[in-house]
Sequence to fold (205 residues):
Amino acid sequence: MSETTILYYTLSGESRQELVVKESRFIATAVPVVSKEDALVQVERVRQMFPTATHHCYAYRLGAGGLEYRTWDDGEPSGSAGKPILFVIQKYRLSDVLVVVTRYFGGKKLGLGPLARAYAQATEKVLALAERIPVVRYRRVRVYCGYQDVDAVIAILRRHALDFDAEYRDAVEFDARIRDDALETFATELADATNGRAGFVVEQS
Fold:
């Protein structure tokens, strides 16, 4: 997969790591999310997991450009928690991701700089170990073939399509998503395997 095909990375699943700084516990939970509503539901879920914690600070980032985002300091000094969390999410080129850092206050104040570093370090710790998966550029295509070529076309789609659906009529039509960097190879293999009988059109996005 070429780097130009990758829009950004997200996470394959939930991950959690803990950091202790001057007796304060910072528990970082990283979760893939699909919308701001989903992110807020996940924040509440984490709150309920650690109901006696002092703070639940978070940041989320959504979409290909990461233009939809939010930070929340949850009572910590302004800019000392949510923004450091967001900066680390951006560093890892992640989007569609929420990180909640839950703090149990240990009795010793950290100061603004050390506090911001602690939130960033907790986020770094969880994201460094979390499994990242690429979100790629793709083109939606409509593939047409006769029944004699169905098996060959399905085999090619399984190699190159992110997903596909079939409609069986007088001929067979497949609606598929093909990665940008695989489209030329897909076209060549489709023509070769069916002696040019099958074809496709790229749908306008």
Remarks:
- The chain has a mean pLDDT of 92.
- The chain has two domains: 3-134, 137-202.
- The first strand starts at residue 6 and ends at 11.
